[in-house]
Design brief:
alpha/beta, 8 strands, globular
Length: 284
Amino acid sequence: MSVCPKIDAHQHFWQISRGDYDWMTDAVADIRHDILPANLSGLLAQHEIAGTVVVQAAATVAETEFLLGLAKDTPFIKGVVGWVDLADPTCPVVLDRLMASPVFKGVRPMLQDIEDTDWISRPTVRTNLTALADRGLRLDALVVPRHLDVLACVAADLPQLPIVIDHCAKPVIADGADAGETWRGNMARLAALPNLMCKLSGLANEAGPGWSAATLQPIVDHVVKHFGPERIMWGSDWPVLNLAGDYAQWCAVSDQLVADLSDQDKANIYGATATRFYGLELSE
């Protein structure tokens, strides 16, 4: 059996002087500096990771173009998930322009930062989500638990749109809290929709100080039970991860979290699911 190369399906780069990272307050001062491919390449080599999907960190098309520019000179960037204004009727024109780059794989609206929980169900947004699907693009859903009901409705109405839930929908697990029956029930509901996938990422930051395999195992077990490894992809959320730990720690804990799975299941989570979902080209 051939083994799919390992893929980090969720990481970020930024250049502070570009000026559109509105979320970078003093609360994230430790990562508020330029973070570029040279800062990650050594970590990827150390952990035998063949490629990454870099995800937007600013709600601007300019930042997406910046990431696509990095990809031209960075062989390990296999995919870019960018940002477009899904509330703008001219969005399809922007999508067509960005698709000139073969590594442009999809978009991520920053739903967690939008006050209107039901924003994704607005008519213009729904029309543009259809335009995504029509172009073979994907949607990364940066959601928190309040979004899960509306996300399920949109996903059911747009079965042709591949959607991946970032960071397991950010369950509220800080300070050892239980994720709750509402989160568990809604994630099971979403998993019943075949166009939904889930990223095993971001959980260290959600758990906070003292996170470990033991504290995260209930989340991972629930997601694996309902989505199955063939619809789960691993990501580091680096360098946001550095606010809670580091790359080596996340890799080690991730191995513990999936230790009881088969080799095939691990291969799916660590690379094959992301490669299929994003349509990554892994050959040099």
